[in-house]
């Protein structure tokens, strides 16, 4: 996946070598997938393109699909941290809005590969299914984090809804003329409700 704007901590020599190997494999896989299509590329070809063994590849990635979503753990950690480590007095919707704007939007416009990356997923059934399951795991984890923060059960429908729509915003704004404004508007709705963003008042007459 194209690099995100999430800042990484400084690593020791062993960790840097491991991270470099991980990135080399993911970069080789994405390059080949974009050039030839996901289904036309084999695991051995990816390993050879990165000048590594198939055994090394599987030490870093459990499946071919995982090569495309190489930052899955980092994305999940940053998403939950947006709620857990937000400033005192900052609402959860506001914190999630800031996360989306800061970490899910900037690199999309700067990296021309991102549109290709999105198309690759959309056009490949195996990747669409993997992505759907990945984001469902994020959604459940985020809902649990929100529920813990406000002191309600993990299956609280309001927490599930906030988690679901906060994640859906990322896809909703992709390709829009002003993604940041679209994110702001979407989170205004999540934070304040329909009336606050200009929706018509409900008919309260009998």
From TrEMBL:
HTH tetR-type domain mapped to chain residues: 19-79
Protein's UniProt name: TetR family transcriptional regulator
Organism expressing this protein natively: Actinoallomurus iriomotensis
Keyword Transcription regulation assigned: yes
GO molecular function: DNA-binding transcription factor activity; transcription cis-regulatory region binding
InterPro entries recorded: Homeodomain-like_sf, HTH-type_TetR-like_transc_reg, HTH_TetR
DNA-binding region: 42-61
UniProt entry keywords in alphabetical sequence: DNA-binding, Transcription, Transcription regulation
